[in-house]
Amino acid sequence: MIRYLAISPKSQCWLFHIALALNVLGMVLTDMWLPMVVGAIVTTYLSVDALVRLRYVIPMKKELRELRHELDIARKQVRESYEQQER
């Protein structure tokens, strides 16, 4: 998930979707079917991957980070209450 660091995930999604549209347009307008089909398959994979990353993976990572932070706070509170009970 750390690839393509030069551009943002949203820009990647737009780039791959535009590339897919250009591939489909190229398939319609030219006779080079085999290279265009291969290009369309590759750009379809990249488009779906970028969309899934943008819609699901990145928000999930943010939520997991927040949950870990809350868990750390809860563990500290439990540890402090346990230490106070021992005194």
From TrEMBL:
Keywords, in A-Z order: Membrane, Transmembrane, Transmembrane helix
Superkingdom of origin organism: Bacteria
Transmembrane intervals: 12-30, 36-58
Protein name (Swiss-Prot/TrEMBL): NADH dehydrogenase
